[in-house]
Design a protein that fits this description.
Radius of gyration: 17 Å
Helix content: 10-25%
Mean pLDDT: 86
Order of helices and strands: EEEEEEEEEH
Distance between the termini: 33 Å
Structural class: mainly beta
Number of helices: 1
Low-confidence stretches: none
Length: 160
C-alpha cells in the first residue's frame, strides 16, 4: 500500500509470519539488478498464544544468513544486524513486556533473515510483522549496498 508521509508518497511492502523457536526465516527481496533498496520502518511482534504460556522471545533481523542455532545475545556492533526485538509475557501477567529497536537509516538490497530464540523455557513460536519502505538506488548506492553484503558474508565465513 502507499503511505502518506505529508511530503511525497512512499511505497511500503509488508511481511508477516509465524517463526518457530530456534529457527531462521528468509525474506526474499533481491532483484536482478539490485536497483531496489529497502529500509525498515516498522517491526512488531505478537505472541502466538496470548495469555496461554510464558514466553521470552528474542527476534532479530539480519542482512546475511546466520549459521548455527539462533542466540538471544544482542550485539549492536554487528553490522549485519538490522533490527532486534524482545517480548516477554507470562500467563500470570496481563501486559507483555516488549522492546523493539530497528536501525531506520540502514538501506539494503538483498534478502533479509529473521531469527527467533525463546529463552523462557518453552518452544513457543512468535508472530512477526515488518514494514519495509522501498528506496530507489542509483548505480553508486546499488554498488555500495551489494559490496557491503558481500563483505559481511565473507567476514562471517558464510558460503554463498
Amino acid at each position: 500500500y502507499k503511505q502518506n508521509t505529508g511530503k511525497k508518497m512512499s511505497t511500503i511492502r509488508s511481511f508477516r509470519g509465524l517463526i518457530a523457536d530456534a529457527t531462521q526465516d528468509p525474506v526474499s527481496l533481491h532483484t536482478i539488478n539490485g536497483s531496489q533498496g529497502y529500509r525498515i520502518v516498522r517491526f512488531d511482534l505478537m505472541p502466538y498464544e496470548p495469555g496461554g504460556s510464558t514466553q521470552e522471545s528474542v527476534v532479530k533481523i539480519f542482512s546475511v544468513p546466520q549459521t548455527g542455532t539462533p542466540t538471544a545475545t544482542m550485539d549492536f556492533s554487528d553490522q549485519t544486524l538490522l533490527g532486534a526485538a524482545f517480548m516477554a509475557l507470562s500467563d500470570s501477567h496481563v501486559y507483555p513486556v516488549k522492546d523493539i529497536v530497528f536501525f531506520d537509516k540502514m538501506v539494503f538490497n538483498q534478502d533479509i533473515y529473521i531469527t527467533h530464540q525463546n529463552t523462557g523455557g518453552t518452544t513457543t513460536p512468535i508472530n512477526y510483522y515488518i514494514e519495509l519502505e522501498l528506496v530507489k538506488l542509483d548505480l553508486n548506492e546499488n554498488t555500495v549496498a551489494t559490496l557491503k553484503d558481500i563483505r559481511n558474508i565473507e567476514r562471517r565465513g558464510i558460503s554463498a
